[in-house]
Each structure stands twice: as structure tokens, then as C-alpha cells.
């Protein structure tokens, strides 16, 4: 059995679903443009620089979910998928995922973006498993808090290993394992698999991939 793990933002997607969700809410008038757009840009820059405070960011990301009924959030997300996400899914990304699925590999998206935003995207790719940051809920409504460990940087390994354990598996269960990512933030998990793949990588990841002779590919 083989294992195929995929980062989502700027990897399978030609953009960042986290960033785009906040921008979408700003366009809908849900978030204040003057205040929130600058914060969204700042968090995105910090992520790219590797200096993101994940707690501060998740507070920004999850508070809007707690402020609105789930039915309204779901309606917004359907519009968000059509207008923002589907245009960011290219044929090469679908084909890459399809090859792993056809081979019968155990596949999952592993992303720091929260599961509300990314769940429908994973289903669009027909990827059966999603390891994402989990927004806490009470009686079907989001609270604005995080449940469990965020799926970010080294936390991705923690979450992947817990998921594998829940399936009665471990790293040694697989003949080969892949992780596809664009970001140096994902170096801990890239170093853990037998086949790390840099997808349209940022400069830091590209340098590391070239040094280690990792595969580099483009899905654009």
C-alpha cells in the first residue's frame, strides 16, 4: 500500500483558499474592508515568510464562522466555490490526484486551512480524507475556537500520525509515501515521507528541493 498526501493552497489550487475566503467575505460586506483586508494581507505575508503566529491567525480566520448561522455560511461557501475555488483547480492537479486514486493509494489533503473552508474542496477532488484545522462547534454552530491541534508546520505530522493510527496504520505500513507542497512551512512533513515533491515551490523550498534532489513539478 502507498500513501499520497497533498497540501492544498498554492499546491492543488493555484491560489490560497484561506486568503480568498477572507477576501470573499469582505466583498460580501461581512467583514470590514478597511480593517480586515490589511490584516488578511499581513497574515498571508507572514505565512510566506514563515513568521505566522498560528493562534493569532486562527482567531482571525474562525471568528467570522462564529458570527453567522451555519445555513448562511453554507450558502456563502457554495457561491465561494463557484466563483473563487473552481477557477483555481487546473487539469494537471486533477490528473495528479486521479493517478494516485486509480492506483489505490491512501490519499488525503493535509492543510492548515480550516475544515469548513476545505471540506467541499476535498470533495471536489474526490479525495476521501481531509486533515485540516478543525473549528470547534456547539450544537451545530461554530464557536470561533479550534478543536485539537492545528494542522500547521510540525503539527501536520502530529495530525497525520493520529489519523493513520485511527486507521490501524503507521508510516511503516506503506511501501512508498508522497507529500506534495509548495511551501517551506511544510518542510517537516516533506522530510518525513519517502517521496517529497515540491510543487511550484516558494524560493526557500526550491533551494531545499534542489539541494536534496527532490522532485520539482508545476501544476499550473
TrEMBL record:
<dbReference type="GO" id="GO:0016787">
    <property type="term" value="F:hydrolase activity"/>
</dbReference>
<keyword id="KW-0479">Metal-binding</keyword>
<keyword id="KW-0378">Hydrolase</keyword>
<dbReference type="GO" id="GO:0046872">
    <property type="term" value="F:metal ion binding"/>
</dbReference>
<dbReference type="InterPro" id="IPR006385">
    <property type="entry name" value="HAD_hydro_SerB1"/>
</dbReference>
<keyword id="KW-0460">Magnesium</keyword>
<dbReference type="Pfam" id="PF12710">
    <property type="entry name" value="HAD"/>
</dbReference>
<protein>
    <submittedName>
        <fullName>HAD family hydrolase</fullName>
    </submittedName>
</protein>
<dbReference type="InterPro" id="IPR050582">
    <property type="entry name" value="HAD-like_SerB"/>
</dbReference>
Amino acid at each position: 500500500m502507498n500513501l499520497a498526501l497533498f497540501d492544498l493552497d498554492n499546491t492543488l489550487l493555484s491560489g490560497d483558499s484561506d486568503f480568498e475566503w477572507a477576501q470573499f467575505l469582505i466583498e460580501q460586506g461581512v467583514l470590514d474592508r478597511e480593517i480586515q483586508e490589511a490584516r488578511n494581507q499581513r497574515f498571508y505575508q507572514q505565512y510566506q515568510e514563515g513568521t505566522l503566529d498560528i493562534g493569532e491567525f486562527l482567531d482571525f480566520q474562525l471568528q467570522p464562522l462564529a458570527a453567522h448561522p451555519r445555513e448562511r455560511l453554507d450558502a456563502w461557501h457554495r457561491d465561494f466555490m463557484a466563483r473563487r475555488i473552481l477557477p483555481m483547480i487546473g487539469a494537471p492537479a486533477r490528473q495528479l490526484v486521479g493517478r494516485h486514486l486509480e492506483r489505490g493509494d491512501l490519499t488525503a489533503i493535509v492543510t492548515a486551512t480550516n475544515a469548513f473552508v476545505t471540506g467541499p474542496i476535498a470533495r471536489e477532488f474526490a479525495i476521501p480524507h481531509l486533515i485540516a484545522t478543525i473549528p470547534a462547534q456547539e450544537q451545530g454552530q461554530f464557536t470561533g475556537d479550534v478543536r485539537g491541534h492545528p494542522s500547521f508546520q510540525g503539527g501536520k505530522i502530529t495530525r497525520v500520525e493520529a489519523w493513520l493510527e485511527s486507521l490501524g496504520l503507521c508510516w511503516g505500513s506503506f511501501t512508498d509515501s508522497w507529500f506534495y507542497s509548495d511551501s517551506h512551512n511544510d518542510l517537516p512533513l516533506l522530510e518525513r515521507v519517502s517521496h517529497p515533491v515540491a510543487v511550484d515551490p516558494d524560493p526557500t523550498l526550491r533551494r531545499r528541493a534542489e539541494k536534496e534532489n527532490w522532485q520539482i513539478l508545476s501544476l499550473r
